[in-house]
Specification:
Elements: E1 17-22, H1 24-27, E2 28-29, E3 32-33, H2 35-50, E4 54-59, H3 62-70, H4 80-103, E5 109-114, H5 116-120, H6 122-137, E6 141-146, H7 160-171, E7 175-180, E8 200-202, H8 206-209, H9 225-237, E9 241-246, H10 252-259, E10 263-266, H11 273-279, E11 286-290, H12 292-299, E12 309-314, E13 321-325, E14 331-336, H13 341-347, H14 355-359, E15 373-375
Parallel strand pairs: 1-4, 1-7, 4-6, 5-6, 7-9, 8-10, 11-13
Antiparallel strand pairs: 2-3, 9-10, 11-12, 13-14, 14-15
């Protein structure tokens, strides 16, 4: 049995582990934390926990809270230094608030601050998985945020939508609920009176991406619909359902579960754990551009051979994650390269039998072996 409707998210058998992401605009108002709303949400989460479901919270709001305390302009996002300083101040208040309110229901909050590298590096990813697993076994509710006080523009998630999806992968969750300021995904800009909300989406396609608006309406957050669709793609690789729903109302979780208001993204497949991690990576070291024949072979389950490569982009070493892209610019797959960028450049368009002559050695016949490759 699999999740098929929004109501299934309340079923411990179909959804034993749920990740709930809460955006900055929902948590922080002009006068500070929206305490009454957060208390009501915590009550809903406690009810799910009482049913026997594991709950993980991905909570934004540290930068917004800290900016208000420090009196910083633009919600603390005027500069990287402002954002880091605001996060350092705001995270204390944010984690304290979650701990206090969850504690009123007899629940223990556990804070995890993660960086992009914590989930992109395989060993650190497995460490995060182990920590999450043990916390959930102990009955705690992990409250997770990006470690914005040390994250830089180059090495960061940038939004908690994709962080929530990566956390769901690491925690082996059943579903992700993204609470935002919209009822779900619409077939066009929701401001258009003719716009219609999509109730269920089976896989994120280019047509679905075309419906997205990249902006954040509140000005407090960093994600828009585009980041939410990227989160749905990450979740899909691991066979995880994802929901986009409106959190601005009272009792937002009940509105999703009882009234069925939101957009449910159902995965079309489920990759093995390692391949799901690889496909969900947000930071790649380079790109291998392939011809039409190689693209067809990859879709058929083959490894990537040097004969099908037409160009090499970026600097990467053997074992680094790279994107595999066709001539039209569509990313077909992620994979771990068996050769460095300089070596790949020398092997472009050549046969595997020529590797040893060209390089003086031939450790692998494939540039990216199919066991180290995941189609997107």
């Amino acid at each position: 049995m699999k999740i098929a409707t929004l109501a299934d998210l309340a079923n411990p058998e179909l959804c034993p582990r749920l990740v709930v992401k809460v955006g900055s605009a929902l948590l922080v108002g002009k006068d500070g934390p929206r305490r009454a709303w957060i208390e009501a949400l915590v009550g809903e989460l406690a009810a799910l926990k009482a049913r026997g479901q594991d709950i993980i919270v991905v909570s934004s709001g540290a930068i917004a809270l800290g900016a208000r305390t420090l009196g910083l302009e633009k919600g603390g996002r005027a500069s990287l230094a402002d954002a880091q300083a605001a996060a350092a101040v705001g995270q204390i208040a944010l984690s304290g608030l979650w701990a206090e309110l969850l504690g009123k229901h007899g629940l223990t909050a556990a804070q995890l601050l993660l960086t992009l590298e914590d989930l992109e590096d395989r060993r650190r990813y497995l460490n995060a998985t182990a920590t999450l697993t043990r916390l959930l076994q102990a009955g705690a509710i992990p409250v997770i945020n990006e470690n914005d006080s040390v994250a830089t523009q180059e090495i960061r998630f940038g939004d908690n939508d994709r962080l929530a999806a990566r956390v769901a992968q690491a925690a082996r969750a059943s579903a992700v609920l993204l609470l935002s300021d919209v009822d779900g995904l619409y077939d066009r800009n929701p401001a258009d009176p003719e716009a219609k909300r999509l109730a269920v989406v089976h896989g994120v396609t280019p047509e679905i991406h075309a419906m997205a608006d990249g902006g954040s309406a509140s000005g407090l957050g960093s994600g828009g619909m585009t980041s939410k669709l990227q989160a749905a793609e990450i979740a899909e690789l691991a066979g995880i359902a994802l929901v986009i729903a409106n959190g601005t109302c009272d009792a937002p979780v009940s509105r999703v579960l009882d009234q069925g208001i939101g957009t449910l993204f159902l995965p079309r497949r489920k990759a093995r754990a390692r391949k799901a991690w690889l496909g969900g990576r947000l930071r790649l070291k380079g790109t291998l551009v392939v011809d039409a024949g190689a693209a067809r072979a990859l879709r058929g389950g083959a490894s990537l051979l040097s004969a099908g490569i037409t160009a090499v982009e970026g600097q990467f070493a053997r074992g680094d994650a790279v994107a595999i892209r066709d001539a039209e610019g569509t990313t077909l797959a992620h994979g771990l390269s068996e050769y460095g960028a300089d070596e790949c450049a020398r092997l472009v368009g050549r046969q595997s039998s020529e590797h040893e002559t060209l390089l003086g050695y031939s450790p692998r016949s494939a540039i990216v072996h199919r066991d180290q490759l995941v189609l997107l």
